[in-house]
Amino acid sequence: MRQQRLDRVGANNRKRLRGELVQSIGDLTRLYLAYVTTAPIELDLPKTVTVDEGPFEEVIGLAADPVTIDAARTRMPARVVLVESGDRAWQRTTYLGNHHLFLAADRWLVSLEKLQSSLWQRLERRVVSAAAA
Length: 133
Description:
Layout: H1 2-17, E1 20-25, E2 28-37, E3 49-55, H2 56-59, H3 71-74, E4 77-84, H4 88-97, E5 102-104, H5 112-132
Antiparallel strand pairs: 1-2, 2-4, 2-5, 3-4
């Protein structure tokens, strides 16, 4: 009984480690989740936002859970992405189906300010391109 309670507390603490961002514009509120992936941008949905990118051995440290680093992976690029919560299942299936990692980002290592800034930059680009069209 005590072990079940400890397991449940541990699971709740792990959930709190995940990077997430709630963004409201007017009456519209969306939940974005941050992930670390090795997938190329071509596998992203149009709403997926790249927050950070770089060599695997640098970016993988932003994942909430530890990952084994082997020689083959060190040559891979990696990214931190924001995925809208409703698109999570599709994005996860696409990345994993193409043999790429899809790991929750650590909310303490991927700052809320960085997530918000990346999202707002993406939204501003959409407004500017729509106005130019």
